[in-house]
Amino acid sequence: MSAKQGGLAGVEAGESAICTVGQSGAGLNYRGYGIDDLAAKASFEEVAHLLIHDCLPTKAQLAAYQDKLMSLRGLPATLCDVLEMIPANAHPMDVLRSGCSFLGTLEPETDTANQRDIADRLMATFPGMIAYWYHYHKEGKRIDTQTEQKTLAGHFLTLLQQQAPSTLAERCVDVSLILYAEHGFNASTFAARVTTATLSDFYSAITSAIGTLRGPLHGGANEAAMALIEQFDSAEAAKTGVAKMLQEKVKIMGFGHRVYTVSDPRSDIIKEWSKKLSDEVNSLTLYQVSEAVETLLWDEKKLFPNLDFYSASAYHHCGIPTDMFTPVFVFSRTAGWAAHIIEQRANNKLIRPSSTYVGPEPRAFVELEAR
Ligand code: COA
Known about the structure:
The chain is an all-alpha fold. The chain is 58% helix and 2% strand. It folds into 2 domains: 19-215 and 323-346, Citrate Synthase, domain 1, CATH 1.10.580; 221-317, CATH 1.10.230.10. The chain has a 3-stranded antiparallel β-sheet. Helix 5 (92-106) packs antiparallel against helix 10, helix 8 runs parallel beside helix 16 (325-346) and helix 12 (235-247) runs parallel beside helix 14 (285-301). The longest helix is centred in the middle third of the chain and has 25 residues, at 115-139. The two termini are 41 Å apart. 46% of the residues are buried. The mean pLDDT is 96. The protein binds coenzyme A. Residues 7, 9, 217-218, 221, 251-258, 301, 303, 306, 308 line the site of coenzyme A.
């Protein structure tokens, strides 16, 4: 497809040393490391260090990095005031978008030498922003946004549920954060790079990215996938219902991909976690419904699930409310966005494409009275 046909599909929009997505239709590497190895053997904090600080940390570096992130979790009092003013029925993505922007007014970027510290600060505070807003509006409770949890996954689940999560739930979210951390020139990352390329500040770039991730064709697909699967109470009902949707040409959220053509390498990994969590909570319906939809979409349209599809049931069984699925994606993708902002700045050029004009030919201006 040419750029003229839309969506910049297939267009090389720049160079990057951060990750490879779908070479030969499949596969994903972060700075050369395969996603299977990272998901099986690393923690999200190691991956964030790899992306933001350029290398996998040593044991000592990892311990220092975890301590640093833990020390950055506190929210300024004025930010808490703002979170209290955001309506209770706001979407949590809007809470993060506003929280990110507001933190940028309290702790503005004055020197790009501190850009990695801002990335770490945002990653450390995002779970607290969401959880503070959520508990304040749900129960009028002003929670402490510090926990003793070393991982971002454990920290978020503890803040959200006000008790430590199961080991399985914590590791499931940890793995999902690894899978969501980076994905090349996707829409939100590209938005961050466009903003960065104007020499704007770090917070503006991340705010642009959050706004872009929100839509259901991008990060919002995990919430839309949940809305789909929870409609059905059995695999049979799902097959009938989704077949009807396909006949009506409805897009099935959580399926298909712009770059992958064979499969999404992240899907099988999160699918396994979805199964483990379903077993742990002894609730198999969502998993069975998901598998039925997967089989049908493959048989009928040769469409495969992307990361968002099985993330839906996995997150649900971790006790995460549906409208917080995309915010969890933000916690993680902040590492990837940061890596791209830093890379863009290192070799910057304003991003400003041209378009093919398809409007009217030049014509004479018509005075107001004569129109
Ligand atoms: N359900 C049903 N049909 C789908 C589909 C889906 N999820 N994804 C793609 N298709 C079909 C389109 O209807 C289109 O068919 P057509 O040529 O007969 O009109 C064809 O496949 C190409 O789709 P298109 O949307 O033009 O491709 P794209 O490269 O622009 O889209 C996505 C990529 C990801 C936007 C698209 O697959 C999609 O909308 N998926 C659902 C949202 C989602 O899960 N997003 C998260 C991505 S990680």
